[in-house]
Design brief:
3-stranded antiparallel β-sheet; alpha+beta; 4-stranded antiparallel β-sheet; 16% strand; Enolase-like, domain 1; elongated; 42% helix; disordered N terminus
């Protein structure tokens, strides 16, 4: 018996041990709702272009024009379709597969139609598929050794069976064989049709019902044909960036977020952005806008609410609410006006001079700026190393905090974010 093993994925990433507990750092964890969304996306049928058919059983039937053949057709998908779906949802670094290959000797076998038995061997492959944050499943594949492609066939069978434990491609096992007419070379005269439940759902706009009546939530992973996943670094990465974009939209206010969305992507709903280049540009622009809003809050605290309200009236704004700042141009004017007036007042009153003349920004503004720079640097490292945003930030933080609670940090945690940012800058230099 001979054993060999090969691995696809990033060796430095942790692997789930047999007890199901994760070890090491940088492993993403998901809320139960998001886990269910990923599993639903894995269970979606493959695109029809990925489905192939093979003839399993054949029978000869008579007719007035002579004998003809019929064959039982079974649907299957190439392993590349499974790999593509995993890459689209989790990125290539978000999952791994390990193979164990064995040659089992001394099988007694009789070929169909033969009278004598022969002694042969069988290739047995065990495939172990790990999706970080979801778990690990294994599958077994086997093929007679005299087959020229025995290794490839057994490997594909094992990989697909492991994937089916996550729900990926599982529906293909539920399809019954269809009997079709064959030509003289026993090839099907027409391609069988899949039942409606085995066809991929047509893409719907956010919040609409799919063909089976289920709602698709905003920002949740979609089926394997997602254009967003194909055009970017994977569905998981897009989901992370999209989540932060939505948080930033809430922070900067209704009008400002809509103006930035229109300027960067010509849409008003971030869910409609499938191009990762545009989504990343939007993320960075909203970060900058958020820093502007924080500067405005600090300036208002110094100038006073009455002066800010009067300034909004002078500029013909609907109110002094953040939601009513129409665009970044107006935001800049508000900030520069209030900061300028405050600085002039301090100078005329003989306030602090030299290095101490400029008031120090408050802790919340400092933390917001550091958080934005951290996410921006992590985005660069993520793209260069094909790792998820969570993995990159968790490694840089080195246990001081997690990506999942980044938004919950307090001003006193600013030093932790600075240390993580320094680590990310070293990563950028290294890549």
């Amino acid at each position: 018996m001979q054993d060999t093993a090969t691995t696809n994925g990033t060796p430095s990433l942790p692997v789930a041990p047999t007890n199901g507990q994760w070890s090491g750092g940088g492993v993403p964890t998901f809320e139960p709702e998001r886990v269910q969304a990923f599993l639903a996306a894995l269970e979606q049928p493959f695109d029809l272009s990925e489905i192939k058919w093979r003839v399993t059983n054949t029978t000869q039937v008579g007719s007035r024009n002579g004998p003809r053949y019929r064959g039982q057709m079974l649907a299957y998908a190439d392993p590349r379709a499974y790999t593509d779906r995993l890459n689209e949802l989790f990125t290539p670094s978000g999952w791994t597969r390990d193979y164990n290959v064995q040659m089992v000797q001394n099988f007694e076998r009789r070929e169909r139609g033969a009278t004598e038995r022969t002694i042969t061997a069988k290739i047995v492959v065990t495939c172990r598929v790990t999706v970080y944050g979801l778990g690990t499943h294994t599958g077994l594949g086997e093929e007679w050794a005299e087959n020229d492609n025995a290794g490839t066939a057994a490997e594909a069978q094992a990989f697909k069976r492991a994937c089916s434990c996550f729900g990926l491609g599982r529906y293909l096992y539920d399809l019954e064989g269809q009997w079709m007419d064959l030509d003289e070379k026993k090839r099907p005269l027409e391609t069988p049709k899949l039942p409606e439940w085995a066809r991929p759902q047509r893409r719907q706009s956010s919040g609409q019902k799919t063909e089976n009546g289920n709602h698709r939530g905003n920002g949740q992973p979609q089926a394997g044909n997602s254009g967003a996943a194909r055009s970017g670094r994977g569905g998981l990465y897009r989901g992370e960036v999209l989540e932060h974009v939505k948080v930033l939209c809430d922070k900067v206010g209704f009008s400002l977020s809509k103006s930035v969305l229109r300027a960067v992507a010509k849409v008003e709903d971030p869910d409609k952005i499938s191009d990762m280049v545009k989504l990343t540009a939007l993320f960075e622009k909203l970060q900058d806008t958020d820093r502007g809003v924080e500067r405005l809050r600090a300036a208002v605290a110094k100038a006073g609410d009455h002066r800010y309200t009067a300034l909004c009236q002078e500029m013909n704004l609907a109110s002094d609410a953040i939601d009513d700042i129409p665009d970044r141009v107006v935001l800049r004017r508000l900030v520069e006006t209030l900061e300028g007036e405050t600085n002039r007042a301090q100078t005329s009153n003989g306030g602090d001079n030299a290095a101490g003349s400029e008031a120090q920004p408050d802790g919340a503004a400092v933390l917001s700026d550091l958080r934005g720079r951290l996410l921006q640097q992590a985005s660069r490292v993520s793209g260069a190393t094909r790792r998820t945003l969570a993995q990159v930030i968790n490694e840089a933080a080195n246990g001081a905090f997690k990506f999942a609670n980044l938004k919950d940090l307090h001003p006193e945690d600013a030093s932790k974010v600075r240390d993580a940012l320094a680590a990310l800058e070293r990563m950028v230099t290294a890549t």
